[in-house]
Amino acid sequence: VISRIVFFLRGVKVKYVRRVDKLETPSIVLSTHGSFIDFAYAGSLTKETAPNFIVARLYFYKNIVGSFIREFGCFPKSMFAGDIESAKNCLSVIKGGGVLAMMPEARLSTVGKFEDIQPATYNFLKKSGVTVYYIKIEGNYLAKPKWGDKIRRGSVVYTTLDTLLTKDELEAMTPEEIGKRVEEKLYYDEYEFLEAHPEISYKSKTIAKGLENV
C-alpha cells in the first residue's frame, strides 16, 4: 500500500500482471534487479504470502532501514563473499513452509541490462525441490537508475509474476538446464524496452545527475 501511494505521488505508473492465482508454499521467487526499489514491485505481487527477502547486509547497519526490513522478515547476505548464515536462513525459510524471495543477480544493474548469475544459485534451486516462480520487471531501471538521484516522473513499469519451474521440472533437469531456463526468463535490456515503448516520456530536473558515476 505504501509503495503504491509513493509511486502515484511520484508520477510512476506500475502495471502488475499475475499469471498465477496463488503461490505454493514452500516455494522460491526469483526477481530481476534493475533498480533499488525493486523490492516494492516484487512485494506488491507476493504480499499475500509474506515472502522472506534476502537483502545486502550493509542495509541492516542503518538504524531506520535496518529496523524496517527486519520487521518485514528480510535477512542479510554479505556481498561478494560466501555467507553460511544466509545459506542457513534460506534453508530455514523453505523447511518452515515459507516463500523465499531472492534477486539472483545479487547486485543492482549499472547499465540497465541483465547481469550474470552465479552457478551455485542453480545448484541451490535443484536441491530445494520446490516450485520456483519469477518476477520480471521492465522500465524500473529507467524509472530510477542506480546512479540517479530521484525517481523520474512519467515512468511506466511493467511487472510480471509467473511460474518458472515446477517441482517435476526441477527434478528432471540438470543445474545447467535450470540455469538456461532462468536466464531466458529473467533476461532484460532496458534500452530494448525503451525502443518498444516510444510513448514513454521521462521528466526530471536532474535527469543526468550522477551519470558520471557509471
H/E topology pattern: HEEHEHEHEHEHEHHH
Strand order of the largest sheet: 1-7-6-2-5-3-4
Please compute the radius of gyration using only Cα atoms: 17 Å
The total of helices stands at 9
Main beta-sheet annotation? 7 strands, mixed
Q: What class would the helix/strand composition place it in?
A: alpha/beta
The global form is globular
N-to-C span = 32 Å
What is the beta-strand fraction? 15-25%
Helix % is 25-40%
The total strand number stands at: 7
Mean pLDDT: 91
Give the low-confidence spans.
none
Task: Characterise this structure.
α5 (119-128) crosses α8 (175-186). This protein has helices at residues 2-9, 38-46, 63-71, 84-95, 119-128, 140-143, 167-172, 175-186, 190-196, and strands spanning 13-18, 27-31, 52-56, 75-77, 99-102, 131-138, 156-165. The protein is globular, with a radius of gyration of 17 Å. Helices cover 36% and strands 19% of the residues. With 214 residues, the protein is α/β, with parallel strands linked by helices. Strands 1-7-6-2-5-3-4 form a seven-stranded mixed β-sheet, with helices on both faces.
